[in-house]
Backbone:
């Protein structure tokens, strides 16, 4: 028999992160040694907060238009659209790396590499 899941009106189950993953308070964070991952996440936080403040349709729309332009325009400089999209996707992949399964990581890396490769090939005039 299947287990019955508790209904959460907000749509997400309440899951507490493990104690090691919880953010320390600011007083202890100032004295704790910081790794490259923590610095990367802290440096990304302002950009993520600005992106979160945008209307939800705007970022996917901009990415879709840039992808369309990068694929349709025949000029070599159109590869820059694809390279920007590939770098953006790679950044998001790096941020989400600890939270996704190995299979999902593989798919994300393949997509990132494909978009970047298309951009470079377009920039070199091979597409």
Residues:
């Amino acid at each position: 028999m299947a287990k019955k899941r508790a209904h959460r009106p907000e749509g997400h189950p309440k899951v507490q992160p493990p104690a090691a993953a919880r953010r320390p308070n600011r007083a202890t964070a100032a004295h704790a040694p910081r790794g490259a991952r923590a610095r990367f996440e802290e440096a990304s936080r302002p950009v993520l907060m600005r992106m979160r403040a945008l209307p939800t349709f705007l970022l996917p729309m901009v990415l879709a238009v840039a992808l369309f332009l990068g694929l349709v325009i025949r000029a070599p400089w159109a590869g820059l659209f694809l390279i920007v999209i590939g770098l953006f996707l790679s950044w998001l992949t790096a941020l989400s790396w600890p939270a996704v399964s190995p299979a999902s990581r593989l798919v994300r890396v393949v997509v990132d590499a494909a978009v970047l490769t298309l951009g470079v090939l377009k920039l070199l005039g091979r597409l």
